[in-house]
Amino acid sequence: MPTVVFYLLIIFAIFIALFVSSIVLIIIKKTKKIGFYTLLFTIIITPIAVLLVFMPRSYTPTYLELSLPDSTKTLRQKLDSAGLYFGSIATVTDMKLPRFANTFNSITPENALKMSDLMKKDRIGEYDFSQADSIVNTALSLGYRVRGHVLVWGHLSDKYKLPDLDEYLNKFPTNERKEILTKLMYKHIDTVLHHFRGKIKIWDVVNEPFDYSNNGNYFQSVYYRYLGEEYIYMAFKRAYAKDSTIKLYLNEQLGDYTGKNAQNLIILVKKMKEQGVPIHGVGIQSHILFHIPPIEELKAYITQITELGLEVEITELDARLRLFGTYKDPYMAQAQYYNEIIDICRNNPLCTGITFWGYTDKHCWIDRDMKYICPKPNEPYLFDAHLRPKPLYYILHKKLP
Ligand code: XIL
Fold first, then answer.
1. Averaged pLDDT in 10-residue chunks for the chain of 401 residues
2. Which atom from ligand 1 is nearest to the alpha carbon of 114?
3. Each residue of 344-400: pLDDT tens digit?
4. Which residue has its alpha carbon closest to ligand 1 atom 7?
5. Which residues lie across from 281 on neighbouring strands?
6. Are 106 and 146 within 8 A, CB to CB?
7. Is the CB–ligand 1 distance for residue 369 below 6 Å?
8. What is the distance between the alpha carbons of residues 154 and 279, in angstroms, rounded to a whole number?
9. Three-state secondary structure readout of the chain
10. How many angstroms separate the CA atoms of 391 and 331, rounded?
11. Which one of 12, 61, 141, 247 is least enclosed by Cβ atoms within 10 Å?
12. Is there a contact between 45 and 11 (Cβ–Cβ < 8 Å)?
């Protein structure tokens, strides 16, 4: 359970207890006065307690004391030699920053390749590639690998309504909707893969097929509701038919590596392999938001996938600083956790890349999109808000030749 929700539940329980007691005290004539004071106290103290839960805490930036080893090589050169894709989401401006360019060798456009951003606003089925082209072309000209994210993602329509495919489908008779959605999905895959042919060589074909509640069920997305589980198979087959030269990934967010979703994801990819559905890899997003899954479990999970002959990439890594709040040096603890993830990947030949969902703590999607359930400090990235390197940067520089 998220820490914030836990604290809020406790506050709520205490509030109810105090509130009920004060009402009872007020009703009893003898204790009326004390009842009013208790009520007043409850009304004042509750919002203060709630504020305290959300109040940002900060930790000492111990990394300012760290120093780099003597080396003429940039981290990017070292990672290139190690044969590891090391990436971040990036805009055109980010990619040109020396800090960024000397660190990462791979980028993922954060939103520019999603249906939401490729389709013209409110004109489902019509495309505008200008934004995406400027990111992808700049990245390629600067020598970055580009991860394509993403062709089919239910949440984009169901949660973000970008675009709202249900609203679109509802304009058609019920018996036609399945076919219309199939055509739209196929057209999207064809158009996007055709456009980026030869440029983007790895794509998340389907993103987040499972439900967030970790019950092992598929997320009831618009695709699932009309096409069933089959939509996943259809998307991969179509992508392969359109461009058989690219790597096709299934990308998923897992809160742990032993729960129902993690298990069913393995069952799904096994089934895909058995049925000859073209799939080359599994992307483990790794937004570590509410609890830190044990590193050994990640290792075992990655092995389970690679034993099926599939590749793995960590595709959207961020582990919130607050989760390391009880450590003496949270920044170092966070870096060590990342370092272990990187080691697991380096030690498995089929684990080919690690991408963070950001590079500077100044721009963090969790601060923006999840502020109510993940209050600050989140600070999950390699550089702080002033672009100063954090501990992981030093650790990697030291250990990589
Ligand atoms: C997020 C972006 O970072 C946000 O800017 C946007 O508002 C919503 O999507 N899993 C994914 C990513 O696969 O595409 C999401 O990106 C984060 C969660």
1. 78 95 95 95 93 84 93 94 98 98 98 97 93 98 98 97 97 98 98 98 98 96 98 98 98 97 98 98 97 97 98 98 94 98 98 98 96 91 98 97 94
2. 14
3. 999 999 999 999 999 999 999 999 999 888 989 999 999 999 999 999 999 999 999
4. 369
5. 249, 311
6. yes
7. yes
8. 19
9. CCHHHHHHHHHHHHHHHHHHHHHHHHHCHHHHHHHHHHHHHHHHHHHHHHHHHHCCCCCCCHHHHCCCCCCCCCHHHHHHHHCCEEEEECCHHHHHCHHHHCCCCEEECCCCCCHHHHEECCEEEEECCHHHHHHHHHHHHCCCEEEEEEEEEHHHHHCCCCCCHHHHHCCCCHHHHHHHHHHHHHHHHHHHHHHCCCCCCEEEEEECCECCCCCCCECCCHHHHHHCCHHHHHHHHHHHHHCCCCEEEEEECCCCCCCHHHHHHHHHHHHHHHCCCCCCEEEECCEECCCCCCHHHHHHHHHHHHCCCCEEEEEEEEECHHHHCCCCCHHHHHHHHHHHHHHHHHCCCCEEEEEECCCECCCCHHHHHCCCCCCCCCCCCCECCCCCECHHHHHHHHHCC
10. 7
11. 141
12. no
Q: Which ligand 1 atom is the nearest neighbour of the CA of 204? A: 13
Residue pair 380/364 in contact by the 8 Å Cβ criterion: yes
Q: Is 110 in the pocket of ligand 1 (CB under 6 A)?
A: yes
CB of 111 shorter than 6 A to ligand 1: yes
User: Residue 43 and residue 112: Cα distance in Å, rounded?
Assistant: 47
For ligand 1, say whether the CB of 304 is within 6 Å of any of its atoms.
Answer: no
Q: Among candidates 154, 135, 316, which has minimal Cα distance to 228?
A: 154
- Tokens, residue 266: 């393995």
C-alpha 204/C-alpha 246 separation (Å) is 11
Q: Report whether 184 contacts 124 (CB < 8 A).
A: yes
- CA atoms of 185 and 40, how far apart (whole Å): 58
> Which residues neighbour 227 within 8 Å (Cβ) at sequence distance 6 or greater?
178, 181, 182, 234
Q: Which amino acid is at 119?
A: M
Q: CA-to-CA distance for 253 and 209, rounded, in angstroms?
A: 9
The reply to whether ligand 1 has any atom less than 6 angstroms from the CB of 394 is no
Least Cα distance to 310 among 356, 243, 265 occurs for 265
